[in-house]
Amino acid sequence: MMNVMLFDGSMEELLVAVYRVYVDKLPPVLFREEQFTPNLIDYPVKIQFKEEEFTRVRSSMREKFSEEALDIITYGLNHSSPHAPTMILKFIIKCFENPKNAFRYQDSFIMEVTRLSRQVSLESHRFMGFVRFNQFGSVFMAKISPDHYILPFIADHFAERFGDMNFIIYDERKQEALLCQGGRWIIQKNLALNEKLFQRDATTEAWQTYFKNITISARENPTQQKRSMPVRYWVNLPETEST
């Protein structure tokens, strides 16, 4: 029977898992709790956050790793693949062996980790332009369905841009929400928001009118549109409802 570490998906518990690998000699196998399927072979070990262990690993990473390597870890950890945490854990171990390993692209494993990280980074960037709000009372509501865990990466952008608004950006797939009030934000997990909060209003109609007015029929290029605005994101974009 093999030990398998389970964590809450956070960077804090990831770094404690790194500590457990080095100190307790646990296998570098890590799953988010909700993505682990109990079986007859794997013995789950729940990671318990300990400030001292987290701080030691974090300080060592900041001292030895480049900013690019730290970005790969941060974005990669938020990939939705159930294998992403294990891959990021092993990536960290490789970087501790030699920080230059982070950029040895001839290594297929390093290339795969980098690919996962870039997917999350790209989706985060895209969703800075793919969020559409409607108003419910004094709060502006938006619903998104990204492939990965991107709310932490878009939070500062929207808090800065709409700091004078109270708003909620709800990831319906992950059932978590970015809540912002007065420019301050938090992420709340395990939420099931009522669909009535996202009913169409004047803001929705304004998006549709704007999109229709800027479209030049003679220059329409559906292929290019789908490349820059992938169809899987259209479900929450009012301007694409009739497309």
Describe the structure.
- The chain has 243 residues and is α/β, with parallel strands linked by helices.
- The chain is 42% helix and 16% strand.
- A hairpin with a 2-residue loop joins strand 4 and strand 5.
- Helix 3 packs across helix 5.
- The mean pLDDT is 87.
Features:
single chain, 243 residues, alpha/beta, five-stranded mixed beta sheet, three-stranded parallel beta sheet, 8 helices, 8 strands
- Spatial order of the strands in the main sheet? 4-5-6-7-8
As a percent range, the share of helical residues equals: 40-55%
Q: Termini separation (Å)?
A: 53 Å
Describe the sheet with the most strands: 5 strands, mixed
Write down the overall mean pLDDT: 87
Low-pLDDT runs of 5+ residues are none
How many helical elements?
8
Q: Per DSSP, what share of the residues sits in E-state strands of 2 or more residues?
A: 15-25%
State the shape: globular
Radius of gyration, Cα only, in angstroms?
21 Å
Spell out the helices and strands N to C: EHEEHHHHEEHEEEHH
Total E-strand runs: 8
What structural class do helix, strand and pairing data support?
Answer: alpha/beta
